[in-house]
C-alpha cells in the first residue's frame, strides 16, 4: 500500500486567515504539537516576507525533532537565500517555491508570459537545488491552468531537478472528479512524473477542499497540504483532521497508509483553536463538540446496544475520551435509564417511569439537562414516593407591582378528593404557604426556607428546602421544579406529608372545599 504524506501549512497558509496573528511562542507550541501528531512536513512560514517569520521559521527548524520543516519562497534569489538561512540547520532542509501558472494570474498579476514563467521556475529550482536537499515547486492556481501548459512547465521543472510538485486549487474552484482526472492525466503525461512526489493543496471556497484533496489522492497525489481545523485564507484550507480520519476509516477504499498519530488530533485542534481564538463549531467533523454526541432516543438506543450503529469513528481514535449521550427532549427511556444507572440509582420500573415522565416535562422547558438535574429529579421522586397524603395538582399565583400576591392551589387531599383554595400574602411565596396552610387546616410554622439552583444557567432547576414544625414535631421538606414558586409549594407539601407519615394518629383534618 502506498503512503500519503501530510504537509501541514497551519503556520503559513493557515496564518493567512484574515485577522490572525500568532506570535513566536505560539507558533513554536503549535509546531511542537504538529511534530507529536506526526505530520511529515511543517510549513512554518514565509521567511523572506518579514523578520518575525524568518526568526520563527528558524526557531521551529531548530526545535522540531521528527517532522521536516519548510518555508515558502517566491522565485526570487534573495527569497531563496533568506529561506536557506532560516532552514539550513534543520534536519532535512526543504524549500517551497511557487509561481502562478493560470492565464489570469500570469497576465494580470505577474504581467509575464508563459515562457517567462517556465524560465524563472527552472532557474529558481536549479538555484534552490544547489542548497536544499528537497525542492518543492507549486503551480499556484493549477486547477484553473490549461493542462497542456501544466504538462509543459512540469516537464521542465522536473528536468531542473525538482523533488515535489504541488498542484494547488488556490481559489477552491475545482470538483472531486475534475481534480482526480487532472492528477491522473499529469501523472500519465508528464515525463518523469513517476520520479517525483505529486501534492495537492485545496481551498474551501465551495466547501469541497477535503473532498477534492481525497479525490486528488485517488488520482495519484502522494502528499496532501492542509491545516488544522481547516483555517486559512478566505474560507480556509482543507482540514487535516478530516482528510486524515477519512483516509484511515476508509483505508479499504483509498488503499493508502499515513504516518499520523491520530490520538493527538483532538489535542492539536484544541491548541490551534485556543491560540488562534477560532472557535471550532460544534458540528465540525472529527473535532466539533458534537462529533461524538447523540441526543435523539433512537440513536442513543442504537449506540447503547452497539456503538457502530451510529458511530463510524471511535472517540479514542482521535483522542476524545468518550462519546456523549446528551439527555434532552428527544431522548428516550433507554438512554435515560443508562444515565440513572450511571448516577448510582437502580429504581424499580414504576419509579423509573415516573421520573422519566418528570424528566420529559423538564426537558421541554430546559435546554441543557445536567446530571445534577437528573439527580434532583430522582431525589425528589424518592421523597414524594415516601409519603403522599397531600398531592399538589396545580398552582397559580398572581403577582405584580400594584396588586396583592394571591395564590390559588388545587390539591389531592388525604381522602383522595380534590380541593381548591386561595389566599394572599405579603409576597408570592407567603401567598403560596398561606394557601397551603389553609388547606392542611392546621397551623404549620415555617422555621426555615432555603432556595438554590441545582445546575447552572438561566434555565436551572430550583431546589427549595424547608424546615416546618407542627404540633411539637418538626420536619424537612424538599421540592425541585423549574419554577421557584412550584418548588416552594412542593417542599412545603413534602414536609407536611412527612410529618403525617411519621405520626399517622395526629393527622391534621383535611379542610375546606374537599
Ligand atoms: C497563494 C498564496 O497563498 S501565495 C502566498 C501569499 N502570502 C503572502 O503574500 C504573505 C506574505 N507576503 C508579504 O509579506 C508581501 O506580499 C511580500 C513581502 C511577499 C511582497 O511584498 P511587496 O513587495 O510589497 O509586494 P506586494 O505584496 O504588494 O505584491 C506582490 C509582488 O510579488 C509578485 N509575485 C507574486 N508571486 C510571485 C512569485 N511567486 N515569485 C515572484 N514574484 C511574485 C507580484 O507580481 C508583485 O510584484 P510587483 O511588485 O512587481 O507587482
Ligand atoms: C503557495 C500555494 C501553495 C498556495 O498557498 C495556494 O496556491 O493556495
Automatic annotation (TrEMBL):
Pfam families the record matches: HCS_D2, HMGL-like, LeuA_dimer
What superkingdom does the record give? Answer: Bacteria
InterPro entries for this protein: 2-IPM_HCS-like (IPR050073), 2-isopropylmalate_synth_dimer (IPR013709), AIPM/Hcit_synth_CS (IPR002034), Aldolase_TIM (IPR013785), LeuA/HCS_post-cat (IPR054691), LeuA_allosteric_dom_sf (IPR036230), LeuA_bact_synth (IPR005671), PYR_CT (IPR000891)
Positions annotated to bind Mn(2+): 13, 201, 203, 237
Keyword Amino-acid biosynthesis applies: yes
The family database entries (PROSITE patterns) matched by this protein are listed as:
AIPM_HOMOCIT_SYNTH_1, AIPM_HOMOCIT_SYNTH_2, PYR_CT
Q: Which family does it belong to?
A: Belongs to the alpha-IPM synthase/homocitrate synthase family. LeuA type 1 subfamily.
Q: What name goes with this protein?
A: 2-isopropylmalate synthase
Please report the organism this UniProt entry assigns to the protein: Geomicrobium halophilum
Gene assigned in the entry:
leuA
Amino acid at each position: 500500500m502506498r503512503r500519503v504524506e501530510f504537509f501541514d501549512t497551519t503556520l503559513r497558509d493557515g496564518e493567512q486567515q484574515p485577522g490572525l496573528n500568532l506570535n513566536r511562542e505560539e507558533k513554536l507550541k503549535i509546531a511542537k504539537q504538529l511534530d507529536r501528531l506526526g505530520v511529515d512536513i511543517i510549513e512554518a512560514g514565509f521567511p523572506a516576507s518579514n523578520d518575525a517569520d524568518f526568526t520563527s521559521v528558524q526557531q521551529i527548524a531548530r526545535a522540531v525533532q521528527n517532522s521536516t520543516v519548510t518555508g515558502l519562497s517566491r522565485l526570487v534569489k534573495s527569497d531563496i537565500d533568506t529561506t536557506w538561512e532560516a532552514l539550513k540547520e534543520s534536519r532535512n532542509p526543504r524549500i517551497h517555491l511557487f509561481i502562478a501558472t493560470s492565464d489570469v494570474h500570469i497576465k494580470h498579476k505577474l504581467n509575464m508570459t508563459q515562457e517567462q514563467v517556465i524560465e524563472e521556475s527552472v532557474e529558481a529550482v536549479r538555484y534552490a537545488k544547489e542548497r536544499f536537499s528537497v525542492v518543492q515547486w507549486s503551480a499556484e492556481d493549477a486547477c484553473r491552468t490549461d493542462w497542456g501548459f501544466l504538462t509543459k512547465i512540469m516537464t521542465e521543472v522536473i528536468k531542473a531537478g525538482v523533488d515535489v510538485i504541488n498542484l494547488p486549487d488556490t481559489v477552491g474552484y475545482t470538483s472531486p472528479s475534475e481534480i482526480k482526472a487532472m492528477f491522473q492525466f499529469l501523472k500519465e503525461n508528464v515525463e518523469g512524473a513517476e520520479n517525483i512526489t505529486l501534492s495537492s493543496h485545496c481551498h474551501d471556497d465551495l466547501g469541497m477542499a477535503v473532498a477534492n484533496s481525497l479525490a486528488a489522492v485517488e488520482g495519484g497525489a502522494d502528499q496532501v497540504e492542509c491545516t488544522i481545523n481547516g483555517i486559512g485564507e478566505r474560507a480556509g484550507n482543507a482540514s487535516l483532521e478530516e482528510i486524515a480520519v477519512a483516509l484511515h476509516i476508509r483505508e479499504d477504499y483509498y488503499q493508502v497508509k499515513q504516518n499520523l498519530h491520530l490520538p493527538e488530533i483532538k489535542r492539536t485542534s484544541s491548541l490551534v483553536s485556543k491560540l488562534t481564538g477560532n472557535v471550532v463549531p460544534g458540528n465540525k467533523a472529527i473535532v466539533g463538540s458534537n462529533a461524538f454526541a447523540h441526543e435523539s432516543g433512537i440513536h442513543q438506543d442504537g449506540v447503547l446496544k452497539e456503538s457502530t450503529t451510529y458511530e463510524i469513528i471511535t472517540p479514542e481514535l482521535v483522542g476524545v475520551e468518550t462519546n456523549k449521550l446528551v439527555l434532552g427532549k428527544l431522548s428516550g427511556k433507554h438512554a435515560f435509564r443508562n444515565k440513572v444507572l450511571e448516577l448510582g440509582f437502580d429504581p424499580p420500573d414504576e419509579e423509573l417511569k415516573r421520573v422519566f415522565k418528570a424528566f420529559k416535562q423538564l426537558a421541554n422547558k430546559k435546554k441543557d439537562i445536567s446530571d445534577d438535574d437528573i439527580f434532583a429529579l430522582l431525589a425528589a421522586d424518592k421523597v414524594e414516593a415516601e409519603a403522599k397524603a397531600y398531592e399538589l395538582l396545580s398552582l397559580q399565583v398572581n403577582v405584580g407591582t400594584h396588586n396583592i400576591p394571591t395564590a390559588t392551589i388545587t390539591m389531592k387531599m388525604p381522602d383522595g378528593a380534590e380541593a381548591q383554595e386561595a389566599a394572599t400574602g405579603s409576597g408570592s411565596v407567603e401567598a403560596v404557604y398561606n394557601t397551603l396552610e389553609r388547606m392542611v387546616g392546621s397551623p404549620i410554622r415555617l422555621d426555615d426556607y432555603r432556595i438554590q439552583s441545582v445546575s447552572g444557567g438561566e434555565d436551572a432547576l430550583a431546589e427549595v428546602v424547608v424546615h416546618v414544625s407542627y404540633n411539637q414535631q418538626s420536619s424537612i421538606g424538599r421540592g425541585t421544579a423549574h419554577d421557584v414558586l412550584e418548588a416552594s409549594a412542593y417542599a412545603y407539601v413534602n414536609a407536611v406529608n412527612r410529618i403525617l407519615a411519621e405520626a399517622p394518629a395526629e393527622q391534621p383534618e383535611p379542610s375546606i372545599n374537599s
